[in-house]
Amino acid sequence: MTQPTIAFIGTGNMARAILEGLLSDGYPSGSIWATRRQVELLADLANQGVCTTSDNAAAVAAADIVVISVKPQMMRETLERLAPALQARQPLLVSVAAGIDAAALERWAGGDLAVIRSMPNTPSLLKRGACGLFANARVSAEQRQSANDIMSAVGITIWCDNEAGIDRVIAVSGSGPAYFFLMMEKMIEAGIALGMDADAARELTLQTALGAAEMAKQTGVEPAELRRRVTSPGGTTEQAILSFERDNLSETVERAMTACRDRAVEMTDLLCKDK
Known about the structure:
The chain is of the alpha/beta class. The chain has two domains: 6-169, Rossmann fold (3-Layer(aba) Sandwich); 176-267, ProC C-terminal domain-like (ProC C-terminal domain-like fold, Orthogonal Bundle), CATH 1.10.3730.10. It is built from twelve helices and eight strands. It has an eight-stranded mixed beta sheet with strand order 3-2-1-4-5-6-7-8, with helices on both faces. The radius of gyration is 22 Å and the shape is elongated.
């Protein structure tokens, strides 16, 4: 069966990661378009058979699915310029930008379009991403599956029943890598403060983080239960856990993630206003 043609409008790091994930999964390069102002930066993709251009409208005119990955501040201008091409082609529009709701995307694109918002995170660059998706009412079951296939090329996907779910995805996985990076950073600093060599503190911390995540993922055991299993009564781990609890770690994490969610809502209000 013929694969839908996909056009990536703006091929920065995230869009390139998704595109390369599709290629590595065997998606036909001739069914992919990639655009960038400096088209010479896409030479490696062109050499693999991807259609590359600096002409966004030409890419849209050939596409069944348009993945738009420009900065949120550029989204309205980009879509309004592309509106005639989008209206003529009527593709599925998939956004990879934070803070722009589906209604604004559809409105700026001229209306009456199938739109999906996606929120991947930076581990997608390593095909270890987590992505939330929300579809407007115009999206067909086939288009939904196509979007899922695209984002699955770089990690796992979850679907949100309502658009507010995307703000929750941002708080959990969109911004989530930074929370773990911060924990790693502080563990390394603490290890050094305890007298450990800096390189050793870094290697032990990163491997421990990787191992803990893999253990939780592969065993399917809830993190709370895994934590209990390694926390012997009266032991060393228990003292660290008790210290975290005295410092209200649970409340700290919840406040931080709520602040993240609230900021996502604020950004949408600011970016989606029609001036």
